[in-house]
Amino acid sequence: MSAAAIKPKIRVRDLTVSYAATLIQRGVSFDVKEGSIFAVMGASGSGKSMILRAMTGLLRPTAGSVCYGDLDYWTSSDTQREQIGRDFGVLFQGGALWSSMSAAENVALPLQMFTKLAVPSIDALVQVKLSLVGLQSGRDDMPSHLSGGMRQRVGLARALALDPQILFLDEPSAGLDPTSARRFDDLIRDIRDGFGATIVMVSHELPSLFDICDDGVFLDAGKRTAIAHGAPRELRDHSSDPAVLAFMTRAIPIAPTPAPPGDAHGPR
């Protein structure tokens, strides 16, 4: 089968997302190839996380589709959406751990909620997932006693608890020191290479984008749509769009492109 005939793992078409009456992004389309690390890029306020939320079932889009295989998530039945969602693992910004639960209890939660495994089996799987992210010890530590990098690793272990085919990562390196960020990037790449997971990552951290991402889409806050597609390194080296170059080279930000006439609401 030719590469052109292989269906993408995820197809996003003409996706429009809004917050209350405010249009955030319109007509966003892109494909995510199976086994790739795909970046959703853009300046702060461009709507990156909202696109991710629409892809993971946390925000109903105003228009457009998000297809997994032959199924459009938002036109599928509740049962179908639940089945699609079982293939997801999500790492929220900052890890989003339950502060009243230990590291092990946070990782065990999806297994308790979505499987019928006995307690000893869950305990064994929790240890496997924590070991996978380099946390062989510290399973009984509370989130308040963990460093930022360790909290991210616990969040990643929890996202991997149900062996997902697709991982969604929201600013996984945000707030980490350069050494911790590099180690976390290496871990993400190892998970992709070792397990064949497809990874969609929201980030504005240039070292991470350039180092591990194979492909991506760039969202513009002024035009409120996608203005570039491609690997971050390729966009940095070959794009002629001023907004893309300003982001990729951290040049002095240019003023957002004015919204088309007739738009009453600006982005947030």
Summed up:
Helix 4 (119-132) crosses helix 5 (148-159) and helix 6 runs parallel beside helix 7. The chain has 268 residues and is an alpha/beta fold.
Kindly describe this structure.
With 268 residues, the protein is an alpha/beta fold. It has a domain at 1-87 and 166-173 and 197-253: 3-Layer(aba) Sandwich (Rossmann fold). The protein is 35% helix and 22% strand. It is built from nine helices and ten strands. The protein has helices spanning 48-55, 78-85, 103-114, 119-132, 148-159, 178-195, 206-212, 232-238, 242-249; strands at 10-19, 22-32, 37-41, 63-68, 71-72, 88-91, 166-170, 198-202, 215-220, 225-229. Strands 6-7-8-3-9-10 form a six-stranded mixed β-sheet. Strands 2-1-4-5 form a four-stranded antiparallel β-sheet, covered by helices on one side. Helix 3 packs across helix 4 (119-132), helix 4 crosses helix 5 and helix 6 runs parallel beside helix 7 (206-212). It starts with 9 loop residues before the first strand and ends in a 19-residue tail after the last helix.
